[in-house]
């Protein structure tokens, strides 16, 4: 009888050790790791959430990129982003640009930000928008000059973007980048995704689109 009791206790001990090992292993594999690129180009890895200003990419257990680089979005939002990507053209010391960025961020709109700071950037902006006005916003093929909250809201609604954020707490938009690459020819062509489609806006009135905007 004592031997039987001893064997049961030993079995329970082994089971407990195995359970603890399994939990510990799972915790290690579930740990989130961030790949952070510093201002000097140096790459570091950390398990601590990055600051909003960091150029960070979240890695999953297999080492692949995840939500921070914008690839892990809710299905509904991912479908809208693929059809009508949003790009913000901004400049230094531009308060309307700051207000527009804050609006997009608070609403949870994934967007690409391109900065206009050099003469080359200005020339490229003129080719894209037909002028030098910033902020300049593109939603798919639609082009909006200047920051007008009501107008931006109407176009975002018409494109199908949600009124409130659906993004995870870890999501970060990519860091702003120059409109034209540094030390590149001034006549560099903008990527196709930035080329505005010449689509007419036809009235489509409805309860979800009172402005009658068609993409």
Shape: globular
Tell me the Rg in angstroms: 25 Å
**Helix residue percentage:** 25-40%
Unreliable spans are: 1-30, 60-70, 196-201
The ordered string of helix (H) and strand (E) elements is HEEEHEHEHEEHE
Question: What would CATH call the homologous superfamily of the largest domain?
Answer: Glutaredoxin
Mean pLDDT: 75
CATH architecture name of the largest domain? 3-Layer(aba) Sandwich
The tally of structural domains comes to: 3
Percentage beta strand = 15-25%
Q: State the end-to-end CA separation.
A: 81 Å
At the first level of CATH, what is the class of the largest domain?
Answer: Alpha Beta
**CATH T-level fold name of the largest domain:** Glutaredoxin
Number of helices: 5
Task: Give structural attributes.
alpha/beta, Glutaredoxin, 34% helix, 5 helices, 215 residues, 8 strands
Layout of strands and helices, then pairs:
Elements: H1 2-30, E1 33-37, E2 43-46, E3 55-59, H2 75-83, E4 86-90, H3 95-107, E5 111-115, H4 119-129, E6 136-139, E7 142-145, H5 149-159, E8 177-178
Parallel strand pairs: 4-5, 5-8
Antiparallel strand pairs: 1-2, 1-3, 4-6, 6-7
